[in-house]
Amino acid sequence: ITGNTSIAIRLCSRQGIIPILEPPRILNCNENLDSLALQVETADASTVSAIATNTQILTSTPSQLTRQNISAAANIAVQILRKPNISEDSQASVAVVATVSQLLDANETEFSHNNLVNVTASLTKTMEEFSLTSNITQPNVAVQSVPLKLDSSTVLFLAQRDTTLGYFPSTKLEIQENVPGLTDELSTEVQILLNIISNSSSNNGRVGFVLYQNDKLFQSRIYKSDNNFSKQIVSGNIDGGRTSGVEIAFNPKYNTSRLQLHDHACVFWDYAINDWSTAGCTKARDQFLRCKCNHTTNFAVLMAFQIKYKYAKPLEYISYIGVGLSIAGLTITILFQIFTRKTRKSSITWMLVSLCFSMLIFNIIFISGIENQNARKDSSDTSGYNQQNSTYSATTNTLLTSDTVDPPADAWCMVVAVLLHYFLLATFMWTALNSAQLYLLLLRTMKPLPGHFIVTMSAIGWGIPAVVVAVTLGATYGGGKALNYRQEEFCWLAALDQNQNFSMKKPMFWSFLLPVALILLFNIIIFIKIVVFVIWKENKNLTRNKKDSFMKKMTGTISIVVVLGITWTIGYLMLISQEETSLVFSYAFCIFNATQGLQICILYTFRSPIFKKKVYEVFSRSQVPRMQFYLHSEIYHVSKSRPAKHFQGTFRPSETSSENISLSTLPSSC
Taking every annotated instance into account, which residue ranges of this chain make up the domain G-protein coupled receptors family 1 profile (predicted)? Predict the structure, then answer.
């Protein structure tokens, strides 16, 4: 019945740097945790050690323990620890504490069942009573006790990082008496100070302490943890005396490079509700997280962290200049297309104007709103946990509900992210529609455009992006969690998980990169067809003089690349993990795509014959102002004689002359 279970275990310990391998403990292969639980209640002193040892062996692979295994092992531990004089049986005591230590390595999800609450509460209560008579240390739990002397005024329990052997991380435990207060030694992980106000007249009082290296036996229904930071739990118990309260100081270990402590709460485990409570506790903070409480049992500090966001600079110079020029170019292109619409087909005008309009709005929002306003608050905020406060306060010691605190809500940033998402998707959708139109005009030249073409294209170009944005918001913004949809560093779609790795579950992938990749793939296919079958196709019927020049073909190719947004494919190359390569593609992406609006203006407006004509008219009027002056002139007349068979033109000077002739600018029709 114990198949796939370790048949024996051996404890490897050390003295200094010398490892010591203790004798093996053999498992009775006919026992399991359920059968041991049935035996332990009636077991006598001669069999308790065997039951404790078998329980330790059966829990020696914590990752395989189920909720039922944990419940059975905890019940066995409680029954053994409540046996009279159990502390005198060192083998049984050590095996039971080792079992509790192994339970603390089990999967945390197995502790989340409500059925375990009463079991774990019974176990921790029993551990407090047991701490008065034993000194046992295991990897995840330590039990320490000392006699309470008649002259003792304070008792301090310390758990310090032992730096003697840096390659063997360990914790050094120490109990001190009659000390003035808590220590300021930064190597101290946790400390608890009992202030004794009266001792019993006898000399048999004792003080006991229990230190848990994580909080798996203290599952809260109120406080939820999303991070994998272990919370140390410490308890003090006194027999034969009374205390005026306790002081506790924690020096928690967490990843300070990515997280910053936002708040903390001093709590104790209230067995009346089987959950954390702040009643009778005050908090303070300097280099430690300090607490003062009226109780002496199972203290912890609940912490709430905030991610240290690396707020991006608003925009680099390349982006500023490129986007600014694009805004100007797109504005010129839109106005030119509208005011000259009578000279061109309406469908072509509408398609290009729609593309330019969506790109223009995106660029305006991007350059004015991409920066998160919290970036400025973050740089100027010196309140709260950026300042150290060593004054105890009860008013701010409120029970926390989570170990993660979202940054201040920024509704404006959310609106900007939604608008950027919509208009950039609309821009790509209009590139695809322009691609489809070019296909119909250039590759299906003998067939007319479909009926209601403009209405259909408008519904697709503006409607599909709206559907995608709406679905994305509905799927990610549940419960008002803005950071499920957008990033905090700047106002754009969320892309990274908690470990700062790109995640396919985030909207950046499935609501932007994926649909844009499909659009770009479609555009590239159409682009290749147009280039091969239209622009670069050799026409043998044309003479050498009529053949298009190389530069004309290149210009046509570049024009198609720009209007179809082919250069946005560089953005996918930026995902390459190699830093130097990614940096090169980043610069290329910024240069080509920040100036896309300017490129459209140059290729589709400035090079247009109509635009050149209008510019010539404006400059011709402005360069030669209307003015009058006098000069000597001769007038010639051209006449034609009409012989019977031939026309003959003659050119002769006129005999008339004028000394005062007004000369003004030539009419535009000349």
Answer: 330-576
CATH code, domain with 160: 2.60.220.50
Residue 556 has pLDDT above 80, yes or no: yes
Contact 131, 155 (CB under 8 A): no
Is residue 60 located within the same domain as residue 193? no
Judgement on whether residues 183 and 271 belong to the same structural domain of the protein? yes
271 contacts 121 by C-beta, under 8 angstroms: yes
Q: What pLDDT does 403 receive?
A: 84
Closest CA to 567 of 533, 547, 590, 540: 590
Q: Distance of CA 336 to CAs 344, 441, 530, 562, 662, Å? A: 11, 22, 26, 18, 36
pLDDT interval class at 256 (50, 70, 90) = low
| 482 and 556, same domain (yes or no) | yes
557-563 average pLDDT score: 91
Q: Which of 281, 308, 335 is the last residue of a domain?
A: 308
Closest by Cα among 566, 183, 605, 117 to 353: 605
Q: Are both 84 and 214 inside the same structural domain?
A: no
* 8's tokens: 């024996």
636 Ramachandran zone, left/alpha/beta (phi>0; psi -120 to 50): beta
Range of the domain at 414: 316-374+409-538+546-617
Q: Are residues 297 and 331 in the same domain?
A: no
| 369 and 507 together in one domain | yes
Residues 310-338 have a mean pLDDT of 85
Give yes or no for a contact between 494 and 507, defined as CB atoms under 8 angstroms apart: yes
pLDDT score of 249: 94
* Whether residue 144 sits in one domain with residue 103: no
214 within domain boundaries = yes
β-pairing verdict for 188-199 and 205-212:
unpaired
The DSSP element (H or E) to which 635 belongs, if any, is strand 633-641
Secondary structure of residue 78 in the 3-state scheme: helix
d(CA 654, CA 659): 14
Among 110, 143, 163, the domain-final residue is 110
* Rounded Cα–Cα distance for residues 261 and 389 (Å): 14
CB-CB contact of 300 with 190 (8 Å): no
pLDDT of 650 strictly over 50? no
The domain total for the chain is 3
Give me the mean pLDDT over the 474-502 stretch. 84
pLDDT at 648: 40
In a domain, 81, yes or no: yes
Confidence band for 389, pLDDT divided at 50, 70 and 90? low
In sequence order, what are the beta bridge partners of 283?
291, 393
Mean pLDDT of the 140-165 span? 84
**pLDDT reading at 662 higher than 90:** no
- Name residue 112's amino acid: S
For 607-635, give the DSSP string. T-HHHHHHHHHHHHHHHS--------EEE
- Report pLDDT for 666: 27
Among 90-94, 112-116, 329-333, 586-590, the least confident range: 112-116
What integer pLDDT is reported at residue 446 of this predicted model?
A: 60
Instruction: State how far the Cα of 319 lies from the Cα of 313, in Å rounded to an integer.
Output: 11
* Angstrom distance (rounded) from CA 400 to CA 276: 10
Query: Do residues 224 and 185 touch, judged by C-beta distance below 8 A?
Result: no
User: 663 in a domain, yes or no?
Assistant: no
Distance CA 129, CA 57 (A): 25
Are residues 271 and 339 both part of a single domain? Answer: no
Q: What is the mean pLDDT of the chain?
A: 82
Most confident of 238-242, 588-592, 607-611, 662-666: 588-592
